[in-house]
Structure to design on (97 residues):
């Protein structure tokens, strides 16, 4: 089952299970996401705007089509075996500790 056109709020992210999901045209705006697993999920044309990801598991995740990562920070995350396709990345930081 795919989630389409969803805007994720901070409170929904806390309780949502992201493993093995397909997300299409979803948006994550002004979120702080810590210690979540997105393993084996697919993001198609999704937007991450002003988000902070700390210690998240993106192992084997696929980012496809024309998604956007804007003004976001990714700190100490696992992107092993992730496939990052045609994304637009603006004013974002990737920090590895």
């Amino acid at each position: 089952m795919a989630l389409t056109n969803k805007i994720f709020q901070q409170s929904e992210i806390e309780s949502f299970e992201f493993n093995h999901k397909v997300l299409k045209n979803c948006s994550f705006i002004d979120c702080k996401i810590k210690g979540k697993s997105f393993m084996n999920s697919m993001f198609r044309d999704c937007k991450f705007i002003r988000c902070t990801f700390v210690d998240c598991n993106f192992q084997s995740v696929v980012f496809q089509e024309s998604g956007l990562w804007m003004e976001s920070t990714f700190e100490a995350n696992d992107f092993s075996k992730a496939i990052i396709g045609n994304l637009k990345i603006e004013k974002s930081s990737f920090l590895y500790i």
Observations:
- The first strand starts at residue 2 and ends at 4.
- The CA atoms of residues 15 and 36 lie 10 Å apart.
- The chain has a mean pLDDT of 91.
- Helices lie at 10-15.
